[in-house]
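Customer escalation, tier 2.

The customer says the design service returned an amino acid string that "doesn't look like it belongs to this structure." They asked us to rerun it and document both sides in this ticket. The original structure tokens are below, unchanged.
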């Protein structure tokens, strides 16, 4: 029980008890704690949650307890966690093999089409466009002229060039230089 609870149950404090008369060290009344008056016993708390020390602590078990594969709940929980971890690991392994196969397929597709002029042209175009835009943006930044308006404008140019390149490359790949 807190002090506030005990104070709330007790009698109300009179104005004389609330302030001490000024002493020779102070010229103003100082507050003091109310007189508690005694201990309060609260019978509302239940003792039902307390452990009975007179009950036996050993429980009887089956005679085949030592022959059981799982003997405790802790052991059962551990086995369940291990089974879940093993299933998750198998799922990850299946996912990784699929990713590796896809990567190998993409890599072999690039190697097969290394002499295709459409692939080479796209690689050169992306490299030159990236280098030119990066250098131009750096020069504008150094001069203090780089603004969000310029960045937005050139981003639109990159999008337009990408769209045109997509359709032109698609036409060349379908008609003149099909991939291997």
């Amino acid at each position: 029980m807190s002090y506030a609870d005990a104070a709330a149950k007790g009698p109300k404090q009179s104005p004389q008890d609330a302030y001490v008369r000024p002493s020779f060290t102070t010229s103003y009344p100082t507050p003091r704690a109310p007189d508690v008056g005694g201990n309060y016993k609260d019978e509302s708390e239940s003792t039902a949650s307390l452990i009975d020390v007179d009950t036996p602590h050993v429980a009887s078990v089956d005679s085949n307890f030592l022959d059981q594969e799982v003997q405790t709940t802790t052991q059962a929980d551990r086995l369940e966690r291990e089974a879940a971890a093993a299933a998750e690991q198998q799922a990850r392994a299946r996912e990784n093999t699929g990713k590796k196969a896809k990567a190998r397929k993409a890599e072999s597709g690039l190697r097969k089409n290394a002499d295709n002029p459409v692939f080479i042209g796209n690689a050169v175009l992306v490299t030159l466009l990236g280098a030119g835009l990066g250098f131009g943006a750096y020069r504008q930044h150094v001069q203090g002229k780089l603004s969000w308006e310029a960045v937005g404008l050139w981003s639109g140019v990159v999008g337009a060039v990408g769209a045109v390149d997509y359709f032109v490359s698609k036409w060349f790949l379908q008609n003149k230089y099909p991939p291997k």
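Tier 2 assessment: The sequence is consistent with the input. The CA atoms of residues 148 and 154 lie 10 Å apart. The helical segments are 3-9, 15-18, 73-112, 117-143, 148-175. Sent an explanation to the customer and offered a walkthrough call.
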